[in-house]
Write a structure and sequence with these properties.
Elements: E1 6-8, H1 13-23, E2 25-29, H2 34-49, E3 63-66, H3 69-72, H4 77-80, H5 83-93, E4 100-110, E5 137-143, E6 155-156, E7 175-176, E8 184-188, E9 193-194, E10 210-219, H6 228-231, H7 234-237, H8 242-248, H9 293-313
Parallel strand pairs: 1-2
Antiparallel strand pairs: 2-8, 3-4, 4-10, 5-8, 5-10, 6-7, 6-9
Helix pairs in contact: 1-5
The structure holds 2-oxoglutaric acid.
Length: about 325
């Protein structure tokens, strides 16, 4: 069985990225202290206990998925903004976008009796329209319990980000993201993976359940899987740190993505304002029109840089 690479949670970002680029996945050990995990579990438990299981084999009849976590769980907010993870988002996603977004935040509980999920790529959320050369997504699963082969540790095929879309993983190509509670699996949107089977006996008190906090990020010009404007509406986002609100989606992306018009009677409100306007307070900027001159300048500068780079690669003209 292939083994996933484990690095210490404080490993330099370049070392982490080198493994992520090579294998498409790795584990950062002991990224959260046990007390922080316990506090997070206590905060999430009422929501998780009340969540019904999935309705098909992919979502899992013995699996629950609990969402709207940025709004419901103040304790997950620092994880969404964890600098060790955002450094990987910068390296993986920024080459293809002006801004990346939170794609989903979901607690996945795998209970005894859940068979293994079908191996897949998360990028298939957008169908198969994106060229494979573009990596659209950086994913994490934070272990809120130990992840073991018996309780449903994520199945991962290291190196499979290079496979064609229709390649089927052989059993000997599938590794398991076994890790201690508090560790985090980091993986791309292209690596083949799936939830594992939980083959434990059910003690009836939740003690054999596997809890994984799935927090994922995607290119800012793609639609987010979890509709963040509904899971985290403006009245909630107004109370978030501005950087987190922007990550959720309350910020312009590129020059023109994300503006809106408050639907007010004639003359009673501004036109084409940036999304921060909906958050009120210091984050509102009624003067904004589309993305503003600075973003347009940035688009022009990037186009100029690309042209200059292409010209520099051209062979010199012969006389
Ligand atoms: O829970 C896991 O380990 C992975 C789940 C997964 O890949 C999915 O639901 O798309």
């Amino acid at each position: 069985m292939p083994q996933l690479t484990h690095l210490p949670a404080d490993a330099p970002a370049d070392d982490v990225f080198a493994v992520l680029a090579r294998d498409g996945a790795l584990i950062l050990d002991d990224a959260l202290p046990a007390a922080a995990v316990d506090a997070l579990v206590a905060e999430l438990k009422p929501y998780v206990d009340a969540t019904p299981p999935g309705r098909d084999s992919f979502t899992g009849a013995r699996t629950t998925r609990t969402g709207a976590l940025v709004a419901r769980s103040p304790r997950i907010r620092p994880l969404v903004m964890d600098p060790r993870i955002l450094a990987q988002c910068d390296a993986l996603l920024k080459p293809n976008c002006h801004r990346y977004h939170l794609h989903l935040a979901q607690l996945i509980r795998i209970m005894p009796g859940q068979p293994g999920q079908a191996i897949h790529r998360d990028r298939w959320a957008w169908g198969q329209h994106l060229p494979l050369a573009i990596e659209p997504q950086l994913n994490t699963i934070w272990a809120l319990t130990d992840f073991t082969e018996a309780n449903g540790a994520t199945q991962v095929c290291p190196g499979s980000q290079a496979w064609p879309d229709d390649r089927v993983a052989a059993p000997e190509e599938i590794g398991r993201a076994t890790m201690r509670k508090g560790s985090v699996l980091v993986y791309t949107g292209t690596v083949f993976h799936a939830g594992g089977a939980n083959v434990l006996d059910d003690p009836g008190d939740g003690g054999a359940d596997r809890w994984g906090l799935n927090i994922t990020y995607s290119l800012g010009w793609l639609r987010q899987e979890e509709n963040m404007y509904l899971s985290c509406p403006p009245q909630v986002a107004a109370g978030l740190e501005p950087e987190l609100a922007a990550l959720v989606g309350y910020a312009m992306s590129n020059y023109a993505l994300g503006y809106y018009t408050p639907p007010l009677p004639p003359g009673e409100g501004p036109e084409t304002v940036p999304p921060e306007y909906a958050l009120g307070g210091a984050q509102a900027d009624a003067e904004g029109s589309l993305g503003g001159a600075e973003l347009l300048d940035a688009v022009r500068a990037a186009a100029r840089k690309r042209r200059e780079a292409a010209e520099a690669l051209k062979p010199p003209a012969t006389a």
